[in-house]
Amino acid sequence: GQNIDQPTEMTATEGAIVQINCTYQTSGFNGLFWYQQHAGEAPTFLSYNVLDGLEEKGRFSSFLSRSKGYSYLLLKELQMKDSASYLCAVRDSNYQLIWGAGTKLIIKP
Amino acid sequence: ETGVTQTPRHLVMGMTNKKSLKCEQHLGHNAMYWYKQSAKKPLELMFVYSLEERVENNSVPSRFSPECPNSSHLFLHLHTLQPEDSALYLCASSQDPSTGSDTQYFGPGTRLTVL
After folding, report:
1. Is the pLDDT of residue B70 over 80?
2. Is A81 helix (H, G, I), strand (E, B) or coil?
């Protein structure tokens, strides 16, 4: 079967750096997405990786290793507004999006 | 504001009621989706419409009935629901689901409670 694994919950301190990992086992690979979802709100697109390596977008970076079936989302200079759930999703060979259960990130002052 | 709106935002219904959820996208996309989101579970894809044609129906019970009258509007008709159907129902749209980089844009969801 197809599977996406991410930690259920993480805690970090304001101003620090946190890395949220995502491992996947899917039938084929056509890219990996990260979304942010604040409580009670819509998931919003953060990043898309299809090639190995690191993509940086301001305070957020996303890394992909296709050979290891692994990605991470790196958040720097954490702010209280970064408290949210972070969803990892992989597009498989049939172009279906396979979703992880999300990682709830709690930021403490 | 993502360009996808959903109404109502909250809905409480009894098991014998009939209600409908509405979704509208203002992004000019060609595909629309219904997802179910339950606590601590992955998003469950329910239905996909591409160019107003249903292309996906993931073994969803018949008490959920989608309708896509045009590329901008999507409905989910609900009848005789069960308490386990209580969840957040998310609508999304995208440009072309047959491409790898196709990004889905989500509405804020309808929080449904079935009593």
Report:
1. yes
2. helix
